[in-house]
Automatic annotation (TrEMBL):
Matching Gene3D superfamilies: 2.60.40.790
Species of origin: Bambusicola thoracicus
Protein name: CS domain-containing protein
Organismal lineage: Eukaryota, Metazoa, Chordata, Craniata, Vertebrata
TM ranges: none
PANTHER family recorded: NUCLEAR MOVEMENT PROTEIN NUDC (PTHR12356), NUDC DOMAIN-CONTAINING PROTEIN 3 (PTHR12356:SF19)
């Protein structure tokens, strides 16, 4: 018998009428082998951001905004042209960039 879940949630029991499963006794951790590429990328980014924050360094969303600002910083018509790019001039909120 092959049972497929329609949605991802904890079952109370495998079969109707069966004794309920005590989910407090279940290991709820997922193996990294079961994580798809997209979820793995998010976990990698969150880990990177955590370590950057601990070290007082820019997190991924800040680095992304700095990259975009630096790209346009010295372009033709920019009021900042000729000035040194200083990322510390900006306070970038976590919601500034969508990944």
């Amino acid at each position: 018998i092959n049972l497929n879940k329609g949605d991802e949630y904890w079952w109370n029991a495998v079969l109707e009428g069966e004794e309920q499963i005590d989910i407090d006794k279940i290991n709820k951790e997922r193996s990294m082998a079961t994580v798809d590429e997209e979820e793995h990328a998010v976990l990698d980014r969150l880990t990177f951001d955590y370590h950057q924050k601990l070290q007082g360094k820019p997190q991924s969303h800040e680095l992304k905004v700095h990259e975009m600002l630096k790209k346009g910083w010295d372009t033709e018509g920019s009021p900042f042209r000729g000035q040194k790019f200083d990322p510390s001039m900006f306070n970038i909120s976590p919601g500034a960039v969508q990944f």
